[in-house]
Structure formats: structure tokens, C-alpha cells
Amino acid sequence: MGLFEPMWKNKNRTKAIAYVQSLKDTDALKEVYLEAHELGERYYEVMLAAAMRLVELDCESVLHLRTLRTLAMYVCSKITGDAHLRIIDVIDDQETLIEIAKKANFDQTALAAVRRIDDPAHLADIAKSSKYPEVSQKAIERINDQSLIADIIGNASNDEVQVNAAEKVLREAIRLNDQALLQRIACDEHSEYPMQVRAAAIGKIRNVSFMEKVILDGKQDFEVRQAALGSLYHPTTLYRIVFEWLTSERYEALFDAAIKRLRDSDSVLLIAVISQAYLWEYRMSAWKKLQGLSTVSLQKKKAIYDTLMDSVRATPKATQLVETIPLGLRDVFR
Most exposed of 4, 164, 209, 283 (fewest Cβ within 10 Å)? Predict the structure, then answer.
């Protein structure tokens, strides 16, 4: 250190910072801050110490703001570790915090700023545009305005952010048991909710007629209809769905899933499908399910098998039917 160099330029950085932290003269601190800022990265720790001390001494508001905004931009581009968090903790100016959240080069810097931002509209803007998923998530957590959440779902640049926002709405709908909202999330014609959220919502809907309509009308995405069928716990409704498809000439991909949901006590329905279904695929689906039922005797299964075989003998379907029988039982079913 030169003979007349100020103490804050001491090569021993610990001593230099301790000196700055001991200053009580705000004018002296301003000079240290501004000169250290001009000297660049070599003195950034001194600059930070001067800025923090100025904040502690509560400078005039204009200088206070100017100092912090300059410091904020430095925080965004240069600082890692705990220093940037200490600075953000004393920043109250919302514009400065918003600028840090949007421009920070480090995720923890942006995250610390988001925690101190109060304006929901700015939080929504940050959630939609942040390059850090955890920053977007924190912003979403702090928003309660449903219109802003909907905007995030529809316009976020990142799929993960859209899902996070949609899941927030879903959690609230479940908490309130808001059936109308759950129906909109799952099945709204112009829904922008991610599919995994729509499928989760359908599982919380208690309106059986609504669920039946979703399954049968074919207007919803397959995943939503599949989730609706998987959530259906009313046997009578399931029977109606199976019978609705039974005589159709158009193949319904969900039919096999519906058959698999039938219980041991539903053997009569399965036999009806085997004998009455228009499509061979439906009859085979019911037959495979019937084979696993302990409530149907082997003799009865053999009689049903013979009836099926008589209808398809000497066709490729006969081979397909034989292949459904376990090897150890094929002699019995001949």
C-alpha cells in the first residue's frame, strides 16, 4: 500500500472491509463506493461493503436508490455466494428487485429477488420469462390471482412452468372441492392445461353423468377419457358404457380398458359381450377376461369357447382364439 493510499485500498482485503464497515461518515462512504465501483472487480468486495454501510446509515432516498440500482446491476452480473443475498435483503425498491429477478446471471440471485417482489403482475411476468425453473416456480407460488395464473398457463415459454402453474390451480380446486373448476380444467373445449393436469383433475370429479358423457361422446382427448374411465367406481355406469359400445361398428380403443375393470361377479355381462358384440376384437377382449374369472367353471368356459370357435372355424380368427388358451389346457379345449 502506498504511503498516502486510503485504508480501504489495503491489500489485506479483510482489513480494508473492516475499515469501510467502521465508517460513519456517509460522504466518505459515497466516495469509497463510487471510486471502488470505477476501479472494477478487484475492489467489488469493498464496493459492496460501502454500499451495505450506506444502507445501514439510511442515506437520502435519491442517493440510496441510485446506489442500490447501480449495485443491483453489478449483483446480477458478477456476484455469487452470500454477498448478493445480503444486498438483496436490504433492497426495498420494487423496480430494482424486478430488474434483478429478470436479469440476474445466477438463479439464487433471481430467487432472492423474487421473494421480495410484491406485485403479482410482475411476478407473473417473471414466471413466464425466467430462464430458471425454480424462479418461475417461486413466482407462481406467490400469485393468487387466477387470471394471472391462467395467463402463465397459456403463455409461459417453458412447458415445466405451464405445468407448475396448472398444478397450483388444480391444488386449489381440490382444496375447495370446486367441481365446476375441475370440470373446466379437465374438459374445457379450449383448455390450455397440460394433459397430466387434466387427467389428474378428472380423477377428482364426482359427477357420474359428466364422467359418462366424457367417456362416451369421444370429443375429449384419449388421455382424458382414459383417466375418466379409470376413475369410474360405479358398476352400473360401467355396464351402460360397455353396452353402449357393444353393437357399434366403430372400434373404441377404451373398450378393452372397460372390460378389464369388470369384476368376478360380472361374468353374465362378459358372456353377453362374447355372444353379442359386433366386433370380433370386443368378443376376444371379453373372452380373455372371462378366462381369468374363478366364478366361471371350466366346463362353462369350454362351452363358450366352442361357440366362439364354431363362428370362426377355418379362418385366421380361429388360430387367434386357440392362442388365447394356455398350453396346458389346450387338450381340454379341443
Answer: 4
Please write the tens of the pLDDT for every residue from 235-287: 889 999 999 998 888 899 999 999 999 988 899 999 999 999 999 999 999 99
Instruction: Indicate if the pLDDT at residue 113 is higher than 90.
Output: yes
Work out the number of other CB atoms within 10 angstroms of the CB of residue 32: 27
Residue 95 has φ and ψ, to the nearest 5°, of -60, -40
| CA-closest candidate to residue 150, choices 179, 176, 188 | 188
CA 171, CA 178: separation in Å to the nearest integer?
Answer: 10
Domain ranges, ordered by start, for the chain: 234-334
Distance in angstroms (rounded) separating the CA atoms of residues 180 and 281: 37
CA 222 to chain centre: 20
**Largest pairwise CA distance in the chain:** 111
Residue whose C-alpha is closest to residue 181's, from 189, 173, 171: 173
One-letter amino acid for residue 226 of the chain: Q
Angstrom distance (rounded) from CA 329 to CA 252: 31
**Could you tell me which residues come within 8 angstroms of residue 135 by beta carbon, excluding any fewer than 6 positions away?**
101, 107, 110, 111, 114, 126, 127
Rounded to 5°, the CA angle 86-110-134 comes to 125
Q: In angstroms, rounded to a whole number, what is the distance separating the alpha carbons of residues 212 and 181?
A: 18
**Residue of 208, 190, 287 lying closest to 216 (CA atoms):** 208
Long-range contacts, 315-320 (Cβ 8 Å, 24+): 317/280, 320/284
Q: What is the 3-state secondary structure (H, E, C) of 21-82?
A: HHCCCHHHHHHHHHHHHHHCHHHHHHHHHHHHHHHHCCCCHHHHHHHHHHHHHHHHHHCCCC
- Residue range 12-38, pLDDT digits in tens: 999 999 999 999 998 899 899 889 888
